[in-house]
Amino acid sequence: MLEFRPITPQTAAEIREYYEKCTYRLCEYSVGVKLMWHSYLKAQFAIAAGCLIVRCCIGDECVFDYPVVGEGGDEDTALRLVEEWCTETGHRLIWSLVPQEKREQLLQRYPYASLRTERAWRDYLYRAEDLATFAGRRYSGQRNHINKFRKIAPDARFVVLTAADSELIDRFWQDYGAEFRKGDNANARRELGYAKEMFGLLDRGWFCAGGLLVEGRLVALSLGERCGDTLQVHIEKALYSYSGAYPAMVQSFAAHFGKDVYWLNRQDDASDPGLRTSKLQYLPAELAGKTRMDIGCEADLLQEIPTLETERLTLSAFEEGDKTAYNAICLDDERNRWWGYDYRQDLYGELTEDYFLDVARQDFAARRAVNFAIRLDGKCIGEAVLYRFDWRGGAELGARIAPQYAGHGYGAEAFAAVAKWALYKMRLTRVVAKCYKENIASYKMLSGCMRKTGEDDTFFYFEKLV
Fold this sequence. Notes:
Layout: E1 5-6, H1 12-19, H2 31-36, H3 38-41, E2 43-48, E3 51-58, E4 61-65, E5 68-69, H4 75-89, E6 93-99, H5 100-109, E7 113-116, E8 123-127, H6 128-133, H7 140-152, E9 157-160, H8 166-179, H9 186-199, E10 208-214, E11 217-227, E12 230-238, H10 245-257, E13 263-265, H11 273-281, E14 286-288, E15 290-295, E16 308-309, E17 313-316, H12 323-330, H13 333-336, H14 355-365, E18 369-376, E19 379-387, E20 394-401, H15 410-424, E21 430-436, H16 440-449, E22 451-455, E23 459-465
Parallel strand pairs: 4-6, 12-13, 20-21
Antiparallel strand pairs: 1-2, 2-3, 3-4, 3-5, 6-15, 7-15, 8-13, 8-14, 9-10, 10-11, 11-12, 16-17, 17-18, 18-19, 19-20, 21-23, 22-23
Helix pairs in contact: 7-10
């Protein structure tokens, strides 16, 4: 299963290898955004199948960026590894930043998906050449502002900033702080603090930075990061007292650092009216959309656990009257070693007489599993569980019978009934199962109703398709 590590200045070099060649154009696919907004995103990463897989923990949700494929990487395997991680850990599968070119691919992959694409999420993409030249009548406003700036500061010049310029940069922050107009806005103050931190990372070689120098002092600065054919512009600041310094900085930065890229991404506007107006005035060539995809499964469509009838058995949801029989099944260590699960591994809280029944109900409430009580003449004699929904139309099925009722084919009868219901009523496309290689009885049962698909050192694997 995937193992994640936090994205920090100490680990960021590993992900930068992937982002520097990434073609998604979105600002979140960059080292800068992950580090600058670390306290909000709590981003972590794993490298698997030659791909960068990033998980962000925002509030109570775990959400995933679309995998960034490295040289020789396997995109499909990376997607599957994320799906398996969500299935194993009980998290919903959420792709939070799907690039437009990957959206249709995921819609084909997942039978049940809900989509959100909000205006405030869209990045502002500009052609590098447009911002470097401000050519044509449509950019006359920007040129006029720059001319005003040149009259105020005729000796202003653009300089590349490096870690060696820390004193110059620190002086700018002091000057900027004295003019800061959003001091009463907590988000603006937080963003300013993050911007200062980013300039402290110039020695890492991930970013490019520059500023406008007037009489030995910076009046504007900017920091960006090249990702594929896009220059991600993470920071743009200018002193309010120097009218026109902002567009002059935009133009100078694009002219110097945008020579070898096609796009400049000046990122989203976070629903700030002033920021939106400003970004639109620079005439973006495209507003790059981002899609959040919440992936569901067939279990989400169930209002309740149905009742199934076979020749001898009834299968239905567990009831309070099943508690004693169900506890005996769940606590039978000798039998449950073939079940492949020890409740002690995930035990939370106290083991009460309601514990197992509560877990089954909670699993169904979260649509992680559908637990059927297997009944003979009204008495609970076992359990059939449909679980490990794989988000792509498949699920795993298991069944266990109390020892005193073993050997009469009840398990096979219940298993076949749930598999048929899952494929034809619940509309799964695939039901899978496995058994320990030493479990001869289960092997015979599964071989009789499913197709064997493989084996490893521990299990035989089976599947049944529609």
